[in-house]
Amino acid sequence: MKKFLYLFLVLILTLFIGIKVNSYFKSIETKINLLASSVVNETNSLNTVKSSDENTFQNLNFQKPDFVEVAKRTIDNVVHVKNSTNISNDFSLEDLIFGRRQQRPLIGTGSGVIISPDGYIITNLHVVKNADKIEITTNSNQTFDAELVGSDDQNDIALLKINSNEVLSYATFGDSDSTQIGEWVLAVGNPFNLNSTVTAGIISAKSRNLDPSGRTTQSYIQTDAAVNPGNSGGALVNTKG
């Protein structure tokens, strides 16, 4: 009888251990399956993100501005401005002994923008201020004498006029209020009569007031496009030209 009870207990214990072992291995198998499923889901998620990033990058590439076309539409509208100012010095003892020397005019240069087909040009006033003679050279190397029509000293603006037998290529004014910080722009000038130069950048800030006294109202656009010496009076254009 004791032997029978002993065998019965051993059988029950063996059955219990077998059930526990089987349950343990099934639990491990379930965890492995869940882990594998998680890895697959993560891989699919990464592939989806990668695909989304590639599509976004392609869209960004597609939206890049075409600087070539903008430059082509703009460079013929920008001119070289040369001013000559005659300087008369006081009569000196050296002039009395050696004779009066011929006075050389003071030369200044800058850029300007044709704003009408009949030859009106806008530039900075400091480019032509006090000039006795103003000369304009177009991007096609045509030269014209220019007349100062009007100026605004406070805003450093001057309006010039040349007479040409041809209808001139000209730029149109944009709406500065609609510009956005971060928008692509081109700075176009004609420094040193070397034909037009173009540099690219973005609008860094708007409504800049450069008057520290605050007595005048100024609203300038700031750009990080490189501006070369002689570019004063040139054009700042958006991607539409």
Care to describe what's here?
This protein is 33% helix and 28% strand. It has 241 residues and is α+β, with helices and mostly antiparallel strands. The chain has one domain: Thrombin, subunit H (Beta Barrel). Strands 1-2-3-6-5-4 form a six-stranded antiparallel barrel. Strands 9-8-7-10 form a four-stranded antiparallel sheet. A hairpin with a 4-residue loop joins strand 5 and strand 6. It is globular and about 115 Å long. The termini are far apart. One of its GO terms (molecular function) is serine-type endopeptidase activity.
Task: State the CATH class.
Answer: Mainly Beta
Largest β-sheet summary: 6 strands, antiparallel, barrel
What is the domain tally?
1
Order of helices and strands: HHEHEEHEEEEEEE
CATH architecture: Beta Barrel
Shape: globular
Number of strands: 10
Number of helices: 4
Oligomer: single chain
Any idea of the CATH topology? Answer: Thrombin, subunit H
Low-confidence stretches: 2-11
Q: Helix- and strand-based class? A: alpha+beta
Considering DSSP H and I runs of 4 or more, what fraction of the residues is helical?
A: 25-40%
SS strand fraction: 25-35%
Could you tell me the mean pLDDT? 76
Main-sheet strand order equals 1-2-3-6-5-4
Give the N-to-C terminal Cα separation: 108 Å
Tell me the radius of gyration: 39 Å
Brief overview, please?
It holds the Pfam family Trypsin_2. Helices cover about 35% and strands about 30% of the residues. With about 240 residues, it is of the alpha+beta class.
